[in-house]
Amino acid sequence: MEPEAKNSSALPDKRIATPGKVNFVADTEAKEERDARLLLLLGEVIRYSQAWVRALESGDPFTAEKWEAECVRAMDRFEANRKRTQTQSTSFDQTQ
User: Fold this and answer.
1) N or C: which end of the chain has fewer CB within 10 A?
2) pLDDT averaged per 10 residues in sequence order, the chain, 96 residues
3) What is the DSSP letter of 10?
4) Count of the separate structural domains present in the chain
5) Which pairs count as long-range contacts for 69-74, CB under 8 Å and 24+ apart, including other chains?
6) Phi (first) and psi of residue 59, to 5 degrees
7) pLDDT, position 27
């Protein structure tokens, strides 16, 4: 008995990925996620700084002080994430 012939058009189109290409795609997705996270943090910094300026302009020193503290915390988070992102991309470049 002969095995039944399979129609090659019915087989799924599977692509063989090279290891470098897989890493590149995964790294691109990870980079996009890191960039999106940094963008969100930068948006926080901008919003807090705007609130700080509005409080200063209205002459409310207590509210201005509160927004200044929030802005500084947001800037610290942004800077820490930015440095971590740079470190990760540098270490990835060194492994290639």
Assistant:
1) N
2) 48 48 60 89 95 96 96 95 80 58
3) G
4) 1
5) 71/45, 74/41, 74/44, 74/45, 74/48
6) 80, 25
7) 66
